[in-house]
Amino acid sequence: MALLEIENLTVEFETASGWFKAVDGISLSIEPGEVLAIVGESGSGKSVAMLAVMGLLPWTAKITADRMLFQGRDIQAIPAAERRKLIGKDVAMIFQEPVASLNPCFTVGFQIEEVLRLHLNLGRAEARKRAIDLFRQVGLPDPAERLSHFPHQLSGGQCQRVMIAMAIACSPKLLIADEPTTALDVTIQKQILDLLMSLQAETGMGLIMITHDMGVVAETADRVIVQYKGRKMEEADVLSLFEAPKNPYTRALLSALPENATGKRLTTVSDFMMADAGGAE
Questions:
Q1: For 26-42, how does the pLDDT look when each residue is reduced to its tens digit (9 = 90+)?
Q2: Fewer Cβ in 10 A, N or C end of the chain?
Q3: Which UniProt keywords apply (predicted)?
Q4: What digits encode the pLDDT tens for the residues 51-66?
């Protein structure tokens, strides 16, 4: 049974000129232990689709789907209280900007212990011990001391590790990582990616990696979905996608990589763009 199965997901937002489709009929599935990359430019609807799954979009958003199942359960139909128990425990998400995602008014220790007490019903002492273990697991130095720190006292890479610790705190079956290496320097990026892949291998959880970085896709993914303007352009296993991309937009993304540059000027996606947004599978 698939961990997550989505059919024909559409997300619309109301604007001054009418309804705007941020996600337009996306379908996807992920199996236990699989790494699925969702790749595309900024604004292609990658994050919005996953926020719809998490139930984190504004109430004004119009969300429709033929199916949205987690382990066979319709997460659109279950009561709100039950969905809150599911999200954060069995399905967790690492957000794009760790510093902005952490509450600046509380210590990082308080924030991770709150997750543990809410979802696992741990006592204060147990939650603290588990938080220290988690901080150690994600490679934070002096984990017991870090509990008393506020987000602004940590570096960007350390905040990202805190976010990862919070996301894996309840041993989720599915982890969604939204641009987990954005705004981090190259060395820290590699450390974070290595950490995520190590955790995924150890626990066997499904991992959805949202990114615009084709290098990250090549390093991490088993299967890839390419999105453009809210639509799925192509879906393939990672080797097939890089060796024989079928969609013009996918070829455009790959041609724009610096290592694929053939002349003095770096090729841009727009150089290869289709005459219209057609060609979705």
A1: 999 999 999 999 998 88
A2: N
A3: ATP-binding, Cell membrane, Membrane, Nucleotide-binding, Plasmid, Transport
A4: 999 999 999 999 999 9
Phi, psi of 61 (to 5 degrees): -70, 145
Residue whose C-alpha is closest to residue 92's, from 56, 63, 117: 56
**Distance of alpha carbon 5 from alpha carbon 21, whole angstroms:** 21
Q: How many CB atoms lie within 10 A of CB 244?
A: 10
Q: Residue 40, Cα to own-chain centre: how many angstroms?
A: 13
Question: According to DSSP H, which parts of 87-148 are helical?
Answer: 98-101, 108-120, 124-137, 143-146
Global model pTM greater than 0.70: yes
Q: Is the dihedral of CA 103, 197, 256, 52 positive or negative?
A: negative
SS3 212: coil
Q: What is the DSSP letter of 269?
A: H
Any idea what the Cα angle at residue 211 is, between residues 208 and 216, rounded to 5°?
90
For the sheet with 231-237, list strands across it. Answer: 91-94, 174-178, 206-211, 35-39, 223-228, 231-237
pLDDT at position 109 over 90: yes
